[in-house]
Amino acid sequence: LIMASSRPKRCTAGNRMQELLDTLPPTDEFFSSTYGGFTEEQDDTDYKYVDEGKDEFDSDFGSTSDEESDAQQDDEEELDLEEERKKKKFEFKRHLHLSSLQKKAQPSTAPSEEVTSPPSKKKKPESNFFTTQTFDKQLRNSTLRKSELSAERRQKVAQSTIKRQKRVTNYQPLTLEQMLEEAKLTELENQESLKRFHEMELEKKQKQNQPKKVKLEGSRIRTTSVAVPIPLKYLDKQIHPFYNPDKMVTPRAYSATVSSLHTPQIHVKTVIEFSNAETYQNIFSRFSNKPTIEKPKRCVVYGLPAKYIDPLTRQPYCNMQAFRLIREKYAEYVKQLKNVNSANESVSSA
């Protein structure tokens, strides 16, 4: 380190570094293409500021516009941060590449004593032109692709911002009459949409109120009534005014006479259908069996038809005399039972 600092500077110092710097492109496409270039124009006629005055916002719609503007600002800030990150990353890679090339270009210096020697022809060192060129080309191609893609993206963003600015500049505030006309149109649209909404709600309610079809399972009875013409055999021959026993009545003559009298020509025929035989038997079994007729009750004393029944002995009787005789017999029967019970008790105690 002492010898390197004390020796004089070489006349060829930095020539290789200068050659490498000359091989690099003079201007980078990334910085010249992003946002249409960083060059400033003196007379920029694309954008002009227009004082539109204070804006009047409705309280119902102010919150939504503020939220939209905040979201746009957040998107723009994220895009700016991404640009800065990519720019720093590119600068860092470039710095690393240049530093690696600079280290390769510096020769390895060994400590040697200062000895005056006659001037001799210096051998030209072997250049690392091929290695540096290939590495530089590979790195440059990848960076160029990335820079082109980013440039296209930035250009689209710039064009969209310019379009927005142009729209803002061409905006003209509406007059009071125009605002009233627009309000009338919106009122009509709102009324139509409200009408459609009410119709949809009515349809929903009607569908909900409609009875749902339920499939019944099990036994069922179905009745069908059909209107049929009255047959001639069921005609009441004695009541009918056109009845003649000697002359046969044909259907045509019968229908003609009935129509002339304005009497009904049809009658109702009802048919009952059962789903199975069990229901039919359960319903009509009581009608198939003949009812049992009870025999008239007679007095146990006189044998006459009984009108009354003794509530104590449940025996029928016809008059008061028969009732007294039944009660006397019943009292004797009770005394006999008591005597028998007392005799049984005495025998059991003995």
Automatic annotation (TrEMBL):
Top-level taxon in the UniProt lineage: Eukaryota
InterPro entries tied to this protein: Vps72/YL1_C, YL1_N
Q: Where is this region: Disordered?
A: 1-161
Q: Which residues form a coiled coil?
A: 176-210
Listed A to Z, the keywords are: Coiled coil
Q: Which residues form the Vps72/YL1 C-terminal domain?
A: 297-326
Composition-biased stretches (Basic residues)? 86-97
Q: Where is the composition biased (Polar residues)?
A: 99-110, 128-144
Extent of Acidic residues compositional bias? 53-82
Per the UniProt record, one Pfam family is YL1
Q: Where is the composition biased (Basic and acidic residues)?
A: 145-155
Instruction: Give Gene Ontology CC terms.
Output: nucleus
Q: Which family does it belong to?
A: Belongs to the VPS72/YL1 family.
Protein's UniProt name = Vacuolar protein sorting-associated protein 72 homolog
Q: Which organism is it from?
A: Trichinella nativa
User: In the UniProt record, what gene is named as encoding this protein?
Assistant: YL-1
